[in-house]
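Sample entry (61 residues):
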Amino acid sequence: RQLFPLRCKPASATHHPYTRRTIQQPALIARIHYIYVSYYHQIYYVRHMHASIHLIDIINN
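Predicted structure, serialized as tokens:
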């Protein structure tokens, strides 16, 4: 029980400068995040559409 707060304090102390750095460059991080999410979502959407079309073909046949 005593070791848990000691582990939390350095993590929070190291987390604050990292968040300050990320606030300075929000546009770049948002752009990379948007490209990654849109690319992943596009692959998922194409796979889902392909699977649904295949199921519709099975139901029709």
